[in-house]
Amino acid sequence: MGTSQHQKAQSRAAIITAASRLFRERGVEAVSVAQIMDAAGMTHGGFPRHFANKQELVNEALASAADEQRVSNGTSSGDFETFANAYLTRQHRDHPETGCVFAALGGEISRAPAETRHVLSERIQRQVEAFGDDPDMQAAALGRWSTLIGAMVLARLVEPEDLSDQIIAAARKFVGLPD
């Protein structure tokens, strides 16, 4: 790959990383292309060299966020306990910009175009398959994962903080994690 192609690939990756972070922090609709490009250290005018439109970037950024979480939290290996221990924490609650794309944007993405929902549906299917190929095992993992996502959404929206902490603690207990 030539230097210009390498630089273009690096720039594209920086845009995806910035978009992924900003979308999870503020929501897809609340973030402009100009804000994303600024966060990536580039000018708005360079955007068309990398993406046809914002929707293409949304799809790639959300896929990247979902893939990043699978690797960073151990879910690619199917280790649910490791995943849940990392997921049900104050750190995750307080930093949606680096956390689960489903908990951060699930409500918004449920109203997104079909192609965006498809991108995340594929990631959900991969995750379910990573938890094992036994249908009962997959159903249990999917139910527990749904509990984690729902708990994180609730923990982020309630006040006061002690109620948020109670939600996280209750979810940890419900899925069988130690205190």
Automatic annotation (TrEMBL):
Pfam families: TetR_N. It comes from the Bacteria. Keywords: DNA-binding, Transcription, Transcription regulation. Residues 9-69 form the HTH tetR-type domain. InterPro entries: Homeodomain-like_sf (IPR009057), HTH_TetR (IPR001647), Tet_transcr_reg_TetR-rel_C_sf (IPR036271). One of its GO terms (molecular function) is DNA binding. Residues 32-51 bind DNA. Signal peptide: none annotated. PANTHER family: TRANSCRIPTIONAL REGULATORY PROTEIN. This is HTH tetR-type domain-containing protein. It comes from Devosia geojensis. The lineage of its organism: Bacteria, Pseudomonadati, Pseudomonadota, Alphaproteobacteria, Hyphomicrobiales.
